[in-house]
Amino acid sequence: TYRFESATSDKALPAGIATLLPSDSATYENGNSVSAKQPAQATYIDSVNDGTWTFKGYDAASAVVNKANVEFVGKWEFKANPTNAETYTPQVTEETIKVGQTPDLTDNVTNLPNLPAGTKVVDITPAGQIDTTKPGTYTGKVRVDYPDGSSTEVSVSVNVLPAPETQTYKVTYRFESATSDKALPAGIATLLPSDS
Fold it and tell me: CA Rg, the chain, in Å?
């Protein structure tokens, strides 16, 4: 006879695996050697647990009949399908801002179009970790949330650049005579515009 057991401690075999049990209708005499028959297939897709069961083998490849029925116990091992977080690796680019600006790290995942549809990026940088009042290099953090419920946290380098110095200039006006032998009368000077 044949019996299957789970080799994965926290998972019970799905009922569908029982349909793969080999049958042996032959009868054997005492002292006969019996070789274990392989199951109809060595893998079983488990959609309920989102993974695959793989037949790992029997407790013995063969046995000798010794005044009793022979039982082969086959072990199946479960492996969960990889999550999106295990399958994909977010690529990030550094953020560069000027003093006083607020960084937006949610658009720094450069390969977002290649990640599963519905993937979201959330800035989880702790408050105060990036000092936008002082130039320097800081580290922010984003969490990439995948549609299957898994997530990955990724560090993002943030460069805070000094604010550019603002140069100020004044505008002045002056009138000149375009006629070489004529000087401007004093009254024209009162027409000068002013820009304060």
Answer: 39
Q: Where are the domains of the chain?
A: 2-80, 86-161
Tokens representing 56 are 């790992």
Q: What topology does CATH give the domain 86-161?
A: Immunoglobulin-like (2.60.40)
Residues recorded for the chain = 196
Q: Which of 115, 108, 107 is nearest to 148 (CA)?
A: 115
pTM of this prediction? Answer: 0.58
Q: Which residues pair with 77 in a beta bridge?
A: 54
196 residues of the chain, pLDDT tens digit each: 899 999 999 999 999 999 999 988 888 889 899 999 999 999 999 998 889 999 999 999 989 988 888 899 999 999 999 999 999 999 999 999 999 999 999 999 999 999 999 999 999 999 999 999 999 999 999 999 999 999 999 999 999 999 877 788 888 888 888 888 988 888 888 888 877 6
